[in-house]
Amino acid sequence: MSEFEERLTAAKLEAMAEFAAGAGHEINNPIAVIAGRAQLLLDGETDPQRRRELAVIHTQAMRVYEMIADMMLFARPPAPRLADCDVATVAENVVAELAGKAREKQVRLELQTCSQPFTLSADANQLAVAVQALCQNGLDAVDRGGCVSVSVERLPAANIPSEDRIAITVADDGGGIAADAQEHLFDPFYCGRPAGRRLGMGLAKAWRIVRNHRGWISVENRPTGRAMFTIVLPATVTASEH
After folding, report:
1. What is the pLDDT of residue 196?
2. pTM (predicted TM-score)
3. How far apart are alpha carbons 129 and 98 in whole angstroms?
4. What's the gap between Cα 7 and its chain centre?
5. Dihedral angle computed from the Cα positions of residues 117, 120, 122 and 128, in that order, rounded to the nearest 10 degrees
6. Buried b / exposed e along 57-67 (16+ C-beta atoms within 10 A)
7. Residue 203: pLDDT band with limits 50, 70, 90
């Protein structure tokens, strides 16, 4: 992707974020009323059939609420709470957390062990959300017997230590990413998989979090058919303006 295309993508996503913030606020209020009234009626209802119907209304209203919460996190995320954190430890914790899901799907989720810490100033919780989104995307993409790998490395820049960057790469052997899907990967609610699989907010949230840490995410298809997502962060991060 050229520098112009990267700027165009960033501008498009920023415009989407502004729309999401306004729309989310307007939709959230009536949904809260619907969910609250449904719960109130449910608490006082004794007829089994009506209770089931009210429960469906409440459940679906809460589903919309959760979608809006994801949308608002993309649009107006909290400012990163910066502190020294070891990126390798963040990656290790994410892999451990998703190990159960990988076993259920009979997929290998591997972490390439690091012989040294990779410390930078970042919000460890937000960074974990971004890495988890990339890992979950990989798990969704591969079939049984497939593999998702996570690695962390330092990228020196022109022998200038202050410009060192840390890269977190998540690769999967799910067959790669279709050309027509690549330009939409980080769009909110975009999903290149069958309808109903996921809401399509994971990669959008990851993009926003990484941007707020002054970093970027690159995507490429390897000749072997592997898709690779790489988060690149400056070794020294300052809070992004909102």
Report:
1. 36
2. 0.69
3. 12
4. 20
5. -30
6. bbeebbeeeeb
7. confident
What share of the chain has pLDDT > 70, as a percent? 73
DSSP 52: H
Q: What is the DSSP string of 160-195?
A: -GGG-EEEEEEEE-S----HHHHTTTTSTT--SS-T
- 108 and 204 co-located in one domain: yes
The residues near 172 (Cβ < 8 Å, ≥ 6 apart) are 137, 138, 139, 141, 142, 146, 147, 148, 149, 226, 227
Q: Is residue 64 part of a domain?
A: yes
Q: How many CB atoms lie within 10 A of CB 81?
A: 11
- The answer to the question of residue 239 being in a domain is no
3-class DSSP state of 105: helix
Read off the tokens for 184: 């939409």
Distance of alpha carbon 176 from alpha carbon 47, whole angstroms: 52
Predicted confidence at residue 159, as pLDDT, reads 47
The count of residues in the chain is 242
Residues 36 and 142 in one domain: no
By DSSP bridging, strand 216-221 and strand 165-172 are unpaired
How many structural domains comprise the chain? 2
Cα–Cα distance for residue pair 187/215, rounded to 1 Å: 18
In whole angstroms, give the CA distance from residue 23 to residue 11. Answer: 18
69 & 92 share domain: no
Domain of residue 29: give its range: 3-75
